[in-house]
Design brief:
It comes from Haloactinopolyspora alba. It is found in: Cell membrane. Keywords: Amino-acid transport, Cell membrane, Membrane, Transmembrane, Transmembrane helix, Transport. Its main location: membrane. This protein has about 290 residues and is mostly helical. The chain has one domain (about 1-215). It has 11 helices and 2 strands, in the order ααααββααααααα. It has helices spanning about 1-30, 40-55, 60-85, 90-110, 140-160, 165-175, 175-180, 185-210, 220-235, 240-260, 265-275; strands at about 130, 135-140. The chain has a two-stranded antiparallel sheet with strand order 1-2. A hairpin with a 6-residue loop joins strand 1 and strand 2. Helix 1 runs parallel beside helix 5 (about 140-160) and helix 5 crosses helix 6 (about 165-175).
Length: about 290
């Protein structure tokens, strides 16, 4: 029982990190229909930026803030300079963002080398918490990641469904010409969306660096899992991203615990089953 509960908690906290990454991707990919394959590189860059800032200033909060702003601004720059003129051409966008990902990965390898880094959490988030079941003491930092993901998810849902700006974003996705005809600058709105989506990847990297290591190859791993989460949950749905992350996190961790040789197969099998039953994803809208 203790092992099952521990694996379940691991699944929840891994799902929380997947959601932080995938929530940004579902805004960009699902709502703007921009295939941003540099999203994994943004995750790793956010982790490295946070590590450098924390190493220089001993401020964990400042590291998170700088990582969020840096990656968010880089995302906007990429969108406005490289993607704006071709954002309706999926293949060209995919190739350009792959190129950006490769350039970022190469520069991060030059700057930080091939070794793994880890971000030390603040004193208040260190140690363990006795959850009161089966004598399990669970890392306090992982619980923080879970709480943060829930808070981010609620904030995004309220922003998209209860604010005027969120309604403009959803309307702009469905019919940008009609929204532009009302005098709203759709380009500026989508630039904000790209900033928020990219900043969430940077935040996830900064937070994830305290729970897991930052190393070359992590960018590809998190890009892959975030794509699976978005596909399973349904493009453009924050609630779908949360459900998809939960399923992927639990399936991957229980598979690692009981069928380690089949862990990757089980994760992809989940995606295949969902697509076979509901091609638009669990919470996605029919095309």
């Amino acid at each position: 029982m203790g092992q099952v509960i521990t694996i379940g908690l691991n699944g929840l906290t891994v799902a929380a990190l997947y959601f932080l990454v995938a929530s940004g991707l579902t805004l960009i990919f699902g709502m703007m229909r921009v295939v941003n394959l540099a999203h994994g590189a943004f995750y790793l860059l956010g982790g490295y930026v946070a590590f450098s800032v924390m190493d220089s200033t001993d401020s964990w909060g400042l590291g998170l803030a700088v990582a969020l702003l840096t990656v968010g601004l880089l995302g906007v720059l990429m969108h406005q300079v490289l993607l704006r003129a071709i954002e309706q051409e999926d293949m060209r966008v995919a190739l350009v963002t792959i190129g950006v990902s490769l350039v970022l990965a190469d520069q991060m390898l030059v700057q930080y080398g091939g070794v793994a880094y880890s971000i030390a959490p603040p004193e208040a988030l260190r140690g363990g918490v006795d959850i009161g079941v089966a004598d399990i003491v669970y890392p306090r930092y992982r619980i923080f990641v879970l709480v943060l993901a829930v808070a981010v998810g609620l904030a995004l849902w309220l922003f998209m469904s209860r604010t005027r700006f969120g309604m403009i974003i959803r309307a702009g996705v469905d019919d940008r010409d009609m929204v532009a005809a009302t005098g709203i600058n759709v380009r500026a709105v989508f630039a904000v969306v790209f900033f928020v989506g990219s900043a969430l990847a940077g935040l996830a990297g900064a937070v994830g660096g305290g729970a897991f290591s930052l190393a070359p190859g992590t960018d590809v791993e998190y890009l892959l899992y975030s794509l699976i989460v978005v596909i399973v949950g349904g493009m453009g749905s924050v609630a779908g991203a949360a459900i998809g992350a939960l399923l992927v996190g639990l399936v991957s961790q229980f598979a690692l615990g009981y069928l380690p040789a089949m862990a990757s197969v089980m994760t992809f099998a989940l995606m295949i089953v969902v697509l076979a039953v509901r091609p638009q994803g669990l919470m996605g809208r029919p095309a």
